[in-house]
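Lecture notes, continued. The same structure-token format from the folding unit now serves as the input rather than the output. Read the line below as a description of shape only.
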């Protein structure tokens, strides 16, 4: 590992370890010595695994990204619920109006992490499924063409771009 890569990794660990520790404490709610030591060890293990997986510095999350993530998760959670209700209505209807379609949606100018986030968000949403991710588009299967048009309108894409900007700002 080169000297500059080591310093980037060290900076990443120094930025992210406190965030991981805070996340652990918030989730655990335990403040006994043993559990705090085990929490510190788990944070160290997460940092080690992230480094070994190549998720540090240029590819991993940052504090601005982590601060934008809850808002995105709330939004995608709402979208999942709304889509689930729509799919259930269509499928349980006496005359289901299902017209499966496959089309490509734009995904140009995104980092690999943003493309994966976008494709996974499409798949999380009931009624749509990401089939393939290219450099500039995601191929999507949908139960109805209207869902493909909604993706082309770009609300989800804009939200993923904003989330990715938060990640890039933390570098």
């Amino acid at each position: 590992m080169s000297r500059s890569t080591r310093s980037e990794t060290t900076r990443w660990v120094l930025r992210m370890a406190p965030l991981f520790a805070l996340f652990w404490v918030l989730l655990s709610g335990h403040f006994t010595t043993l559990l705090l030591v085990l929490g510190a060890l788990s944070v160290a293990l997460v940092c080690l695994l992230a480094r070994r997986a190549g998720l540090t510095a240029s590819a991993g999350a940052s504090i601005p990204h982590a601060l934008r993530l809850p808002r995105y998760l709330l939004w995608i959670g709402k979208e999942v619920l709304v889509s689930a209700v729509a799919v259930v209505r269509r499928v349980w209807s006496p005359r289901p109006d299902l017209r499966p379609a496959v089309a490509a949606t734009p995904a140009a100018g995104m980092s690999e992490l943003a493309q994966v986030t976008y494709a996974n968000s499409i798949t999380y949403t009931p009624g749509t499924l990401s089939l393939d991710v290219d450099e500039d588009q995601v191929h999507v299967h949908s139960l109805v063409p209207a869902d493909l048009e909604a993706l082309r309108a770009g609300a989800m894409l804009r939200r993923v771009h904003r989330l990715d900007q938060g990640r890039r700002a933390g570098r």
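Point for the exam: The beta strands are 101-106, 128-133, 137-142.
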